[in-house]
Amino acid sequence: MITHPVLTRHIAAGIRMGLDRVTRLLRELGDPHLAVPVVHIGGTNGKGSVASLVASGLRAQGLKVGLTLSPHLRSVNERIRVDGVDISDDDLAALLVELDQVSTAWARAHLTDMGDGAPPLTYFELMIVAAFVWFVRQRVDVAVVEVGLGGRLDATNVVRPEVCAITTVDLDHCDRLGPDIPSVAAEKAGIFKAGVPVVIGRVSRDALRVLRPMAADRGCPMQVLGEDFTGEGTPRSFTWRGPGRALAGLSVGLDGAHQVDNAAVAVAVLEALGARKPDLRVGEAALRQGLQDVLHPGRCQWLASDLLVDGAHNTSGAERLAAYLRELPRDRRRTLVFGVSEDKEIRSIAAALAPEVDRILTTSCGHPRSMSPGKVAEALVGLDVPVMPAGPIEQALPLARGGEGLTVVAGSLYLVGAVLDLHPQAS
Question: To bridge 229 with a disulfide, which of 44, 242, 275, 421 should be the other Cys (CB 3.0-4.6 Å)?
Fold first, then answer.
């Protein structure tokens, strides 16, 4: 499903941070978010990969697993998965209509700021409520929930998790999360709950200076990558070491050196979950299988021998993609097909990738927030690499691939989704 009349109406509500509306509506629905154990995953980059890795490990153990991720790449159904299968169009449509009717009636009875025709929830809030309701109806054993934006005021923060994690802390959405690393860290640490174990990925000292006391204040046992556990090696063979345990010869089914960090965090999360909830413990064989079998499209994904896509949509994500490109032989011309949303750090993302490519073709996709190729190109004037607007992705991609070189598509997850639509056999 690409869209639905209910979703179209809720998109108009924009982004409204806060937990009150969601909490009160979920209570009306019987608190489905409290009915199943939850693993809550936040962070600037890597949270989707870690959530997918955790869910894959739990599935390999034979558990029935709900997973909610955002944003989606190709269809909104991706945001509600059970055992790796997206909710069907028919089931999602019926659920959206049902929840729209319930939420509208509830809002008219309980909210004073309900304008005529105004949806009581935002698009994201509605999808999160739908995910919780669906997981309960499908009787999942555990749900893995990715934070949408920030943490403290994100709609997912209504959960009472068994374990939570913060993968990375970098600057992104500064208008909402704050202008510096400590501010962003404080917002992300808002998912910490009293006594709940916390796993922290590779973060800066500035971030740790915020995360550590906030975890201590809430009595959260805290493990930090590089201090309490490690992941050393390559995605094809790495060793995880944690308190009293080492696992050698692990491999992860995602490309990029940064995926070793993500896999290490996922293993630490699964270990903490098993210690807290023995019925959700993932054995070594299942853990190994889950890391290998993980599916998380659009992240350093090869769609063909000459086509690489990655959802790098902020500076730190672009730096990770650049590091991956540096590992590849520089034996052919490289073209970056680059498109972004209006709220992104356009120049800094492109600047991180520019040294690893020979030219940049700017593009756009069908998403309403996608900037025009001309405006993107204007923002990149002065970069030490040729830049040319190349039209929408349907035109830009064939132009980029017209030769013997390597084409890299990045800048927006929605752009990557559009490329996957053009290459469905590869995704």
Answer: 242
